Each structure stands twice: as structure tokens, then as C-alpha cells.
Please model this.
Amino acid sequence: MTTPLRLGIAGLGTVGVGVVKIVRQKANLLAARTGRPVVITAVSARSRDKDRGVNLNDYAWEDDPVALAKRDDVDVFVELMGGHEGPAKDAIEAAIASGKDVVTANKALLAHHGQAIAEAAEDAGRVVRFEAAVAGGIPVIKSLTEGLAGNDITRVMGVMNGTCNYILTRMQDAGLPYEEVFAEADALGYLEADPNLDVGGIDAGHKLSLLSSIAFGTQVDFDGVELEGIQRISIEDIKQAEDLGYKIKLLGVAQMSGRGLEQRMSPCLVPADSPLGQLKGGTNMVVIEGDAVEQVVLRGPGAGEGPTASAVMGDVCDIARGLRISTFGAPAKGLQKAKTAKSNSPAAFYLHLTLLDRPGALAKIATVLGENGISIDRLRQTRHDDANAPVLIVTHKTQRAAIDTAIAAMAETGVMVGDPVALRIESV
Model:
């Protein structure tokens, strides 16, 4: 096939500009690898006059992304605007209705509306590809839908937000408190306009819900993801975890149990010598476990112009080759909504408590743990100079429900100061 594949790009931020650069600079390579030219015919963004450091004069301009999505000279609508409502959603729906295929990096949109979008594309005979929406340049969607298609997936887990990984590793390497590193990340432009999307685990939770849908053949269920951010992780927690042989990571884990689909995004302790424990900076990592392949570890840059544009172009090239895959790896109308299950798989837990420094305080806490069937593996009271005593406890394997019940009971003992930190120790 020699007919060009014509792209309409909505959104000319960092990623959009990266896509334009690849199409302009690697035209011969793309044609050789796909068997047809890949060209841009039209673009859209908020500001037409902004200097983006790339020549856009060859392309038609549309102020309205919906108008771009409907153009007759566009075969593939590339949505890089972001946002789970408004123009991005309207434009993708218009593109599908106009007979266009769609490539997007919009994890929030798919996490909230993925099932409806997938069904609309299926009805129209179109495809929606979203490799760039999860883990930047790592080809994790392609791995699940293609390379690992012969596996029953048993667990998917990973570090999927580079900003959180930067903050946690920076705290550890520099010995700095959370508040100082958060301000540093903000000054460097690493945080979303709403920082809670990053540090609250929401961005990574969107990504986990998309991977869960593909891995377990279910409808996307972002509402079923248990979310806990990194805001309460202190430098003391970082140091104590390191002394115990662990690193703290914002870790997403999805698995299907007999009770239903468990999805959690929360800070966890992982072994310091594991691949996840050694992950630094803005790098992402996804670990996939299947019955045939056992374990696959995918590591790479989780964001940025080049890595994310690379993922977008991987999807564009598949469409240019004629590869047609259902949005979530199986026909959308055959996907069922999974039963949501709270994560309750047994694990050891790290507890950081602050107690009044008086006789019997620690005994009361130990009694509460025992009454809830929680056995103590290690216990340490750190040195202190005031009336409050920091206490660290590592439990034997137990269930999160038991930990939560025990924490609620601890609050009634009269010896607790503030809220405890309870972190799962994940086996990887």
C-alpha cells in the first residue's frame, strides 16, 4: 500500500511536538517500516502563535479539535490534549463517528470512559490505541495484548508515576524531607497542575485500571482502585525502611482472586535488591506475571517528549501496517464488569507509631495487635528527646483488614500520638 496515512494532531505540547519531530525527521524510516508514507495534514492547539520550536507551516490549522477530528483529509486522529471531559472526549467521539482511527495518550479519559469509547469504536469498525497512556515509552500495552496473549495473567504490578518515584528516591539519596523535595519537584515542572493527581496516586491509578482491564479481560474499573498517596511518607520512614533492607515505592498491584478483582495503588516496601527497589528517578517499571511466561519485567522512561512520542508513533505505525486490535485486547461488548474486591492478600506490614513515653504504652499496643491476630516479627523504639516515643513494628503476614481494625482500636488506648503509618511489604 502506497497511500499515505494522514494524521491530525490535537495538542501541541511536549508530546505533540515530539510526534511532529518524529514524523518530519524520520519519514523514510517510517515508510520503510510500515510500507506506506506517514504524514501530518492538520493540527490543533490552544494557541496558534506560540513558538514551539518546530515548523508547522505545512499543516492546516484548526482552532477546534472537534473540527480537526471530522476533516476528510485525516485518517488517524491523534489526541494529546489531556483531560477526561470536554474537548478531548468530544473530539475522540467525533473522530470515531467520522470513521477515523484514534491514537491517544489520555489515561484519565480512558479510565473514566474507556468502555463506552471502546464500544463506539467497535461499532464503527475503528481502533483506539493508547500505548502512550501507560508508562511512557515502555511498550506494556503491546506486551499484554500481543506478546503475552497466550498467558493467563496472574498479577500486574509496577511503579507507574515518575514524579512520585523521583520524590521518594530524592528523599532517600539526599536525606531531605518530603515537603522540601515536593517543592523542588514543583519548581522543576515535574508536577501536574493539580499535584494530587501525582502524589495522591490518581494518575498511576488511572494507568493501573487500564492494565487490569487488558490483563484480566474485564471492563475498566477505576472506581475499584484503592488509592493511597505518598504525602504521609516521612524521611524517617525512608531511613527505617532502608535499614530494614527495603525501599519505599508508590506501587500499583492488580490481581484476580477468588473474591474478585483487587486493584491497589499505595506506597509499599519492596526489597532494596529487587528490580523495583533499584528503580530511581523518573523511570517506570511494570512487572507482569503469567502462567506460561512466569515473570516479565519492563523498565524504561515513564514520561517526556521522546519516550511518549515514541509510544504514540508505535501505535500509528501499527495502524499504518493494517494491524487491528480491540481497544482492551478483546471485543469490548464481551467484557464484563469484574466484582470489586478490597485487597486482603496476606502480607507483612511496616507500622510507624508515635506513643506517649510512659510505662505500659507499648504493652497496650502489643495487646491490640495480639487481639487482632497480628504477630510481631520485629519491634524497635527509636531514640527520642521529648515526651513522644517513635516505635517501629514489622508484623508477620496478616491481612490489611486486620491492620485497619487494629489501628482503629489503637486510637482508643489513650497512648497514641497522631495517626500511624501502615505500609504493606510487597513480595516481588
